[in-house]
Structure formats: structure tokens, C-alpha cells
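Hi Y.,

Following your request, here is the sequence exactly as I used it, all 129 residues.
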Amino acid sequence: MCLTASSTAATTAAPIAPTTTAASDSVGADLPKDKDVTEMSVKELKHAIVEAGLESQSVGFCEKSEFVALLLEHRAGSIAVEGDFTSEIDQIMQNLNLTEREPVRSALLAASGDVSLATESLLDSMELS
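Below is the corresponding structure, written out as C-alpha cells. Let me know if you'd prefer a different format.
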């Protein structure tokens, strides 16, 4: 079953989201942070992805190997998570005198958190408009 951005009655795909089950029923409730991702079940992988804040990057995944690769990249530190950039977004917005956060957040995510690359990208897009 592939993950989609939204679930409709016509499809069987379901987005991953935290469940509201009892702690004893919750998959991954006691999952160690250092558990080998290649040994995890797909349910455990999905739970770990939600916990890591990576669910938006897993939309469309169908194969276990895709979930494993995403978590391995995240654990290696090569994937930026949206919540990590609040101060950087504020810094860029102030430096460029911008009022909208979304373009800055998108540029920063695309630049994997590199403030100078994100600033450069935003300046380029401002010149084009």
C-alpha cells in the first residue's frame, strides 16, 4: 500500500499518521532509537518516520526499502527536518526584509539547512520576479 498526501474513499492508500491507541497496542511505543532500521517491520518504519517528522518526505512510498533508505539518510544527518530551522528562517527573513515564511522555509529545506544557499536561491527568485 503506497502512501499518499490524502486518502479518499476511492483509494486504498492511507497516509501515515500517529495513532491514538493504548500504549501497549502502539507499534514502536518502546522502540529503541538505535534499533537497526533494516530489521524493522513496515509498521515500525512508518512509526519511526512520523516520530522523526519525515512523513511529508515519505508520501508515495510503496516499498520497505524506500522507508529504510529515508530513515538511514535521516540518521546519518543528511536529511533536514522542517522544525529544525526556526531561527534560520527568522534570520533570512530579517536579512532580506521578507514577510512570508513559506518561501523561506521551502528554500531552506531545498538547501538542506544551508542559510547561504537558501539566501542565494531566494535572491535569485526575487530577481526573476
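Residues 2 and 62 are 4 Å apart (CA to CA).

Thanks again,
Q.
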